[in-house]
Amino acid sequence: MRFFSISVSLILAALSTHCAAQKSPPTCLDASLKGHILSATCQRNDPNRTQVKTTLDMNKCFAYNPNNKKLQCGKGYTNSCTKCELDASDFLDCECGEDHHQTSINPLDCVKLNDDGTLACKQ
């Protein structure tokens, strides 16, 4: 579960950076993680910008592929990565596998931060 705790913080940091670059306010707030479930309150795309509570199972968005030794978008994350941090380019860098090699992924490649009021995986 260490990977998911770190990942949520990094994804939310990437969200802030992404929204600041677009000069628009964040559309998801009050994010929290319980186990591998990310929860947040997000705005819908309706004229009233209705706020709705939404959840996302992080196991459905990220996976570690031991064959090519890379993080990727997909299902079936196995608890194989540690020491995850966000680099200067907003990429998620982790040490993975038995040999603790370095691998990276852009978290925004795998997660739709607000899909009409919901958090969702892109695949």
TrEMBL record:
Pfam families: CVNH. Residues 1-21 form the signal peptide. Keywords: Signal. The lineage of its organism: Eukaryota, Fungi, Dikarya, Basidiomycota, Agaricomycotina. It comes from Scleroderma citrinum Foug A. The keyword Signal applies. The keyword Lipid metabolism does not apply. This is Cyanovirin-N domain-containing protein. Residues 27-119 form the Cyanovirin-N domain.
